[in-house]
Design goal:
With about 525 residues, this protein is an alpha/beta fold. The chain is built from 16 helices and 25 strands. The strands form six sheets. It has a nine-stranded mixed beta sheet, with helices on both faces. Strands 16, 17, 18, 19 and 20 form a five-stranded antiparallel beta sheet that branches. α2 crosses α4 and α8 crosses α9. The N and C termini lie far apart (about 50 Å).
């Protein structure tokens, strides 16, 4: 990597709160497309570049009600940047909180912040005031852009003097009105490739969230690795995804990947599985991304849906059970692209597509990344043995203020906390989160394997498995199950499922405790919160 240029940040908060450089992971720039110039503004590469090349008339953002071209998005993003700088007084390096559902003005606001040299802190639209207050304090935020429908919790979460620009309503100071008075041209701040351009909060599956710090070059790197080499998008693609832009999975799929390729994205504010399927048929979506639970919810409708436009379906956010992959493939012939990524790494780093897919495996290291399975001392274990997944590449973990940095980064590797097995062909097989590995009477039992066995039963809609304390065995396998509405399991439903699991996997792995629930606890991004299930043990 070339020597980077001088930081453009006047507000030095981000620079001063990076973890010590000795605690950073080792970064790899092994592909020629990862050699970025020292002065780099990610917005210019994702957006301005296309208009400058004469592609401004191409469609960029599609909704059920409107369509924006690349020129439209560029003009509105530039106007947002002007509003931030000239109305609010934004300085390069200031953090700007973004709050709203996936819609065109949220995307324009994200670009406006980046263009002005600010740092985007995009949040889930349904977070409450206490959660927002924590994030505002952690990130030192003093400015926000917020959809007018989500102002109440933000107002109560922020201190006096905090500046909020609402958008989409009828307030005289609404951002859409203010922006319309500004010039559609803006000179992007000449940020450095390693200036922080976004803070992404971990989704809180284990409690209090942490802020991860990502550079301008990182945003491009996820497109130039996973998207370029696995999804292989073209300008004719139309992307759609369910995760909100605050989830880095959603940011990649709905902003970074389509715009890097000069393609378009369909945005849906309330992307239920059924509405996503309707959108595929109506708008001819070509690349779809959502969580495993959504694909499973789509199963009853897949055989009758017109999915001929789809060329790629991506699953991430949590492990994709082999049973779900096979059920989707049997229903409609689609081969789902599985992948593992993390907020710390920004996006997916292990995956496979097309004929390279092996159901039940996550895939192989994405080009540009290296991955191995390690023992507790950081030494690689032989293929076929359990260990913790370690990865390095052009992106990597930098926690704000180094919060628990040394837990995630060890000897230059990002240690994700996932237990994996690698096979001799280089495919990685997910076993469990490290804290979800259940040790019962001396046996190591991976919760996801038991979940997968339960999901094979036609009466089971969802299942989550955790370890519960037990005086005799140390821990026992406990399952929380959501049944389908028409489920018939006889007079002893728990016993029926236990016997079924014993017929699918080694009997010692069966859940000795089964609880039934109407729903499983999940984060706003759909990730299962196993810690809440353990707390209820």
């Amino acid at each position: 990597m070339k020597q980077v240029s001088r930081s453009a940040h006047v507000d030095r908060f981000a620079r001063e709160n990076l973890p010590p450089r000795a605690q950073w992971p080792e970064f790899l720039f092994t592909l020629p497309e990862l050699e970025y110039p020292s002065a780099l503004n990610a917005a210019a590469e994702l957006l301005d570049r296309h208009v400058d090349a004469g592609r401004g008339s191409r469609r960029c953002i599609v909704t059920d009600n409107e369509e924006w071209s690349y020129a439209d998005l560029l003009a509105r993003s530039n106007q947002v940047a002007h509003a931030l700088v000239h109305e609010i007084g934004l300085l390069p390096g200031n953090r700007v909180l973004l709050r709203g559902p996936n819609n065109p003005w949220l995307v324009a606001s994200w670009f406006g912040v980046i263009k002005a040299g600010g740092i985007a802190v995009t949040t889930m639209p349904l977070l409450r005031s206490g959660e927002l207050k924590t994030m505002v304090e952690i990130a030192g935020v003093t400015i926000a852009i917020c959809d007018h429908r989500f102002l109440q919790d933000l107002d109560s979460a922020t201190p006096d003097g905090f500046q909020i620009l609402p958008y989409g309503g009828d307030h005289p100071a609404d951002l859409t009105k203010v922006a319309a008075t500004k010039r559609p041209q803006f000179e992007n701040v000449a940020t450095a490739a390693d200036d922080v351009c976004m803070l992404a909060f971990t989704s809180g599956t284990t409690g209090k969230p942490k802020a991860t710090m990502h550079f301008h070059r990182d945003v491009l790197a996820i497109a130039d690795t996973f998207s370029r080499h696995v999804l292989r998008p073209s300008p004719d693609d139309l992307f759609a995804a369910s995760p909100p832009l605050a989830f880095t999975f959603g940011l990649g799929q709905s902003v970074v990947f389509p715009l890097r390729a000069g393609a378009a994205v369909y945005l849906l504010e309330q992307p239920s599985p059924q509405r996503l399927l309707e959108a595929v048929e109506r708008h001819r979506i070509t690349v779809l991304a959502t969580a495993p639970t959504a694909y499973r919810a789509m199963l009853p409708d897949l055989p009758s849906a017109n999915l001929t436009s789809l060329r790629a379906c991506v699953s991430a956010g949590e492990t994709l059970p082999k049973a779900t992959w096979e059920a989707v493939h049997d229903a409609c012939g689609i081969r789902i692209i599985d992948g593992i990524g993390s907020t710390e790494m920004l996006h997916i780093f292990i995956s496979a597509a097309g004929d390279e897919i092996r159901p039940g495996t996550t895939g192989r290291a994405v080009p540009g990344y290296a991955a191995e399975v390690q023992d507790p001392d950081g030494r690689p274990v032989p293929d076929g043995e359990l260990g913790r997944l370690a990865v390095k590449g052009p992106t990597g973990c930098r926690y704000l203020r180094g919060d628990r940095q040394e837990t995630y980064v060890r000897d230059g590797w990002n240690v994700t906390g996932d237990v994996y097995v690698r096979d001799p062909d280089g495919y990685f097989h997910y076993q469990a989160r490290a804290d979800d590995m259940i040790v019962s009477a001396g046996y190591n039992i991976a919760g996801p394997e038991v979940e997968e066995a339960l999901l094979r039963h036609p009466a089971v809609a969802e299942a989550a498995v955790v370890g519960a304390p037990d005086a005799e065995r140390g821990m026992v396998v406990k399952a929380v199950v959501v049944l389908r509405p028409d489920a018939e399991l006889g007079p002893e439903p728990a016993r029926t499922l236990q016997d079924f699991v014993k017929s699918q996997i080694a009997p010692y792995k069966y859940p000795r405790a089964i609880e039934f629930a109407d729903e499983l606890p999940r984060t706003a991004t759909g990730k299962l919160q196993r810690f809440r299930l353990r707390e209820g043990s």
